[in-house]
Amino acid sequence: MDATESSKLSDGIDAPMWMFWRRRRYVLVFLAFFGFFNVYSLRVNLSVAIVAMTENRTVQYPNGTVSYEQEFDWDSTTKGYILSSFFYGYIFTQLIGGYISNALGGNYVFGVGVGVTAALTLLTPLAAHGGFGWLIAIRAVEGFFEGVTFPCIHAIWSNWAPPSERSRMATIAFSGVFTGTVASMLLSGVLADTLGWEWVFYILGAFGCVWFVAWMVIVKKSPETDPYITPKEKEFILATLQRSAGPVEKVQHPWRGILTSKAVWALIVSSFSENWGFYTLLTQLPTFLRDTMHFELQAAGFLSALPYLVMGLLLSVAGYLADLCQIRRWLTTTQVRRYFNCGAFLAQTVFMLVGAFILKPGPTLTCITIAVGCGAFAWCGFAVNHLDLSPKSAGVLMGISNTFSTVAGILTPIVSGQITASGSENEWRTVFYIAAGIYLIGCVTYWFGVSGELQPWSIEAREKERNHRQEDGNGHVNEGLQLDQKH
């Protein structure tokens, strides 16, 4: 059932959409929002904390001598490896996350992934004081557990999101990414300056642990297993997903079709491109503003958060517009994905180039803010496109694309650290030019390869599953008849 057809059905709940607590699927979205808030606040905190950990401090000795020392004497290359260490573990659980979420339930996998990361975040200061190796190790383990989150959320949407609300539900939840980024950057700067950098990890880790308890108690695998959903809402969701009530079948993924699909590879390139620019700024912007633009730590934390605040605000608007374009039949699903994604990439390319060329605090930060904000519209393309191509395999598709995105997360801090060894303006220009070029490659690739339609290999796999169930059903009927005849 497409978006227009599903929009004609009603969930029978007489309440406006903003009253999310009246609809069980939007309670899930609300908690998923804070789940992604935690995912990124726990990931980003080190980008700000590491500035405080390595800045020069005034030390006065008993004899009156004054010196300037760093608590952790790490150069830009070392900091690059530390910031990328999270992704050493993250890359290994992308495909695993998509696969086990179908078997165990995306709700369990998502909750455990965030919960364990939060618990380990509380131990990060201890690891840092233990040495460079311990810090890298604990960040890699955090990444390992957090790596399941994006793939398994698509497994959740495949059970809960009607086609007419798919972009809206996903982008509202994903806006937690940017809200978490903003909150983490703002709070990390303040906490590091007032209480000490260790409290960055204690406060954010504790909040993640509280969220974990709420998620595990409230969120269920599917409407069929939720005891608190109204019968009308359950019928509405199942009807739009063209499913009957009953246990969810084990998914057989058409691997050959997936790996040879032009649409899948366009999605992979697009995801990599967006994440290259995203992680470049996410990990390097506080350092760039502090060391090259000469802002104080709190100001650098606040200004680093500004682009993500804009993106978070625009993301829900972009998701609503994407759904509206499909419901009103102004654009096909393929056109929505293409125009939103590629238009955003083109704007990001232009503003990154302009910001790099000017490289002055005010104009450059404005260009970066606009570039990151435009990324909200790209998320209505590549970030939800998996559900268009194959709803049942969406978690695995997200795992594949996010594996390549994680490569960007590993490489960008290392590449940026190598390029900006002395922190000169020309070195930072090179970093921004590379990001702009990769945005442009993603734009061209996605334009020519995108599809918003259910793929032939997905239809074929669904038909095989249906035929297999019918054969099993006929077999059980025949066995029953034979037993009756014997008796």
Briefly summarize what is shown.
The protein has 487 residues and is mainly α.
Structure description:
The mean pLDDT is 85. This protein is mainly alpha-helical and 487 residues long. It has a two-stranded antiparallel sheet. Helix content is 76%, strand content 2%. The protein has two domains: 3-454, Up-down Bundle (Growth Hormone, Chain: A), CATH 1.20.1250; 459-487. Helix 2 runs parallel beside helix 10.
Q: Uncertain segments of ≥5 residues (pLDDT<50)?
A: none
- Rg of Cα set: 24 Å
Number of strands: 2
* CATH level 1 name of the largest domain: Mainly Alpha
What overall geometry do the principal axes of the alpha carbons give? Answer: globular
Order of helices and strands: HHEEHHHHHHHHHHHHHHHHHHH
Summarize the main sheet: 2 strands, antiparallel
Can you give the mean pLDDT? 85
Amount of helix: over 70%
CATH architecture of the largest domain: Up-down Bundle
* Neighbour order of strands in the largest sheet: 1-2
CATH fold title of the largest domain: Growth Hormone, Chain: A
* SS summary, helix count: 21
Task: Kindly report how far apart the N and C termini lie.
Answer: 46 Å
CATH homologous superfamily title of the largest domain? MFS general substrate transporter like domains
Give the total of domains: 2
SSE layout and pairing:
Elements: H1 3-7, H2 24-54, E1 56-60, E2 66-70, H3 76-84, H4 86-90, H5 94-104, H6 106-121, H7 124-130, H8 132-146, H9 149-160, H10 166-194, H11 198-218, H12 231-240, H13 255-259, H14 262-292, H15 297-327, H16 333-358, H17 361-378, H18 385-389, H19 394-419, H20 425-449, H21 456-486
Antiparallel strand pairs: 1-2
Helix pairs in contact: 2-6, 2-10, 2-11, 2-14, 3-19, 5-6, 5-9, 5-19, 6-8, 6-9, 6-11, 7-8, 9-19, 10-11, 10-15, 14-15, 14-19, 14-20, 15-16, 15-17, 16-17, 16-20
